[in-house]
Each structure stands twice: as C-alpha cells, then as structure tokens.
Amino acid sequence: LLMIIATILFFFGRNTFTQIEPTKDPRNYFKEIIEMLPILKTLGLIYLFISVFWSLFDQTGSSFIKQANTDLMIKKLNIFDYSIEILPSQIQSLNPILILIFVPLFSFIIYPLWEKIAKRTILPLEKISVGLFITVLSFLTLVFIQYQLDQGNTVHILWQFVPYFILTIAEVMVSVTALE
C-alpha cells in the first residue's frame, strides 16, 4: 500500500523534480566519471568507517545479550510491590524508542545549538566523526560493566541502558547523517 502511495506521489511530482537529460556523447560520460573519482574515493573512505560502526552496533544483538544473560546480572526490577523480570532481549527495544526521541531532539535542538556555539554550519563529516567517537564511549561503558561482572560483582540489567543510550546517540549522528 505504501509503495502504491509513493508511486502515485512520484507520478504527480514528476514536473517539480529536477530532471537531468542524459548526454548522448559517450566522451562526456567518461569525463564525468573521471571527475567523480575523487568524490567516490572520499565517500568510500567514509562508508568504510560507517561499516565499522554498523559492525559494532550489531553487537547489541549478540554480545550485549550474552552479557545480560550472565548469572551475575540482576534481571528483577521492583516497582512498588511488584517484581518485574526484564529479559535481556527486551533491552534492545530501547533503541527504536530512543531513535524516535533523539532524531527530532538532534535536528531541532542539539545541532542548531552546536552551530550557534561554533558560529558556523556543522559539516556532515564532523557529525559522523563525533558519532564514531561516541560509539567508543558506549563500548567503554560495556567494558566497565563486564569488568564488574568478571570481578564477581552483581550488576543490574538496567546498567545496560547506559551503553544503549550512548550508542543510539552515535547512531543518530552517524547513520542519520549518512542517510541525509
């Protein structure tokens, strides 16, 4: 249904979209490709780092859950007189909820404030770079949690909210910016 709606919208908007006529001369085509090579090289490097980000992000579906399944991880949450058990796989639901909160927060508050403080437009590459650095902070918090578990200390599963929170900030800065 959504694809049909999108097709109809594209059809009715065809006169307002930018249209570039294809060139008939193949020499111009190869000239344009050669001119694009430095741009493609830069984009390739950026997407190499973004693929590393997604490799790390995918640990939320494996290493995060494996850590939460350890016996030293407390999974009970007592709210008033009720005891609720939080399953390790439920922690992952934080990401889409946080994405829905962070995307407008960053778009309308954090990025404009950052640009106001910097007194210039923040480049997408800067957002991605900061997001990659924040990814490291997320995994450092996981290392701290794992260190506590390795020392025989009990840790509540809600502590995993911290790396998810930080990683979702990084996802907004890296992934959303790259998609833009």
Report what the structure shows.
The protein is mainly alpha-helical and 180 residues long. Helix content is 67%, strand content 7%. The protein contains 6 helices and 4 strands, in the order αααβββααβα. The strands form 2 sheets. The chain has a two-stranded parallel ribbon. The chain has a two-stranded antiparallel ribbon with strand order 2-3. A hairpin with a 2-residue loop joins strand 2 and strand 3. Helix 2 packs parallel to helix 5, helix 4 crosses helix 6 and helix 5 runs antiparallel to helix 6. The longest helix has 32 residues. 15% of the residues are buried.
Tell me the series of helices and strands, N- to C-terminal: HHHEEEHHEH
C-alpha end-to-end distance: 25 Å
Uncertain spans, ≥5 residues at pLDDT below 50? Answer: none
Our estimate of the beta-strand percent is 5-15%
Q: Strand order, biggest sheet?
A: 1-4
Please describe the biggest sheet, giving its number of strands, its sense, and whether it closes into a barrel: 2 strands, parallel
What structural class results from the helix and strand content?
mainly alpha
- Helix fraction, binned, reads 55-70%
| Count of helix runs | 6
